[in-house]
Amino acid sequence: QVQFVESGGGLVQPGGSLRLSCAASGIYFSDFTMSWYRRAPGKQRELVATITVGGNTNYADSVKGRFTISRDNDENTLYLQMNSLKFEDTAVYYCRHSDQSGTPLAWGSWGQGTQVTVSS
């Protein structure tokens, strides 16, 4: 059974940092492109960042230069380092295996996500 478990969210002030983790199971993690997504209140889920099997990364314009996606294939874990956080980064963050464009693969399901709240 494919499962993604996100963690590391919390409450942070503007300008602060958080590091999210995503533990994957039920897949050969190293064989898949992985992506982070987020859903802000009242909005649709959007793609945040993608990392390919070879380590190539891509970011949404809104987070470019502030967020860094990485992966540890030995630990089957995906990370998202978030710096210089802004109010508009407030959302529930999810991870998923995807294609290289960031489209989630059809087989699999969303985890519960981890809440990130940026507030003063």
Helix and strand composition category: mainly beta
Mean pLDDT over all positions: 96
DSSP, total strands:
10
Please state how the strands of the largest beta sheet are arranged side by side: 2-10-9-4-5-6
Sheet bearing the most strands, described? 6 strands, mixed
Could you spell the SSE succession in H and E letters? EEEEEEEEEE
For the terminal residues, how far apart are their CA atoms?
Answer: 40 Å
Strand content: over 45%
Helix percent reads under 10%
Rg, rounded, reads 13 Å
The low-confidence parts are none
Shape, please? Answer: globular
Total of helices: 0
Overview of this protein structure:
With 120 residues, this protein is mainly beta. 0% of the residues lie in helices and 48% in strands. It has no helices and ten strands. It has a six-stranded mixed β-sheet with strand order 2-10-9-4-5-6, with no helix packed on it. The chain has a four-stranded antiparallel β-sheet with strand order 1-3-8-7, with no helix packed on it. A hairpin with a 4-residue loop joins strand 7 and strand 8. The chain is globular, with a radius of gyration of 13 Å. The model has no long low-confidence stretch (mean pLDDT 96).
